[in-house]
Amino acid sequence: MAAHYYPYCPQAELTAGLTSHTDPGLLTVLVQNEVPGLQVKVGEDWVDVVPVEGAIVFNIGDNLQIMSNDQYISVEHRVLANPLRDARVSVAVFLKPSISDQLCGPFHELVSAEKPAVYRQFTLSDYMGRFFSKELDGKTLTNYYRI
Q1: Which pick of 9, 15, 28, 108 has the fewest CB atoms within 10 Å?
Q2: 53-80: pLDDT as tens digits
């Protein structure tokens, strides 16, 4: 779980909030207040996720993209610095596999001659090590494991 607090930023246009990334796990469950700032990438454009009171946001993570053999695609997102007087607050709960030395890759049931595996197998410990090394951002981590 991660809690984020984005206070008022008087020069938000000159400041980075949370840089572009995808989440490493299966799903991320996000609860946020009504202060905007979350954006998702659609094609080459950034689109605002308009906060709705009481709504819960679900983000597909990289592991679900890999395990589903691209049936589900992880969402690249970022958070802009906050130009509003009210602080932006969000809480994210990350759902991920827990066995770090287990091999992961596309589910065998989703791989066939017509739809070959898009990703190679890997261990979760290797995957998480690369994610937290900060060497990769955006959607480059899923691309690293492509066949």
Answers
A1: 108
A2: 999 999 999 999 999 999 999 999 999 9
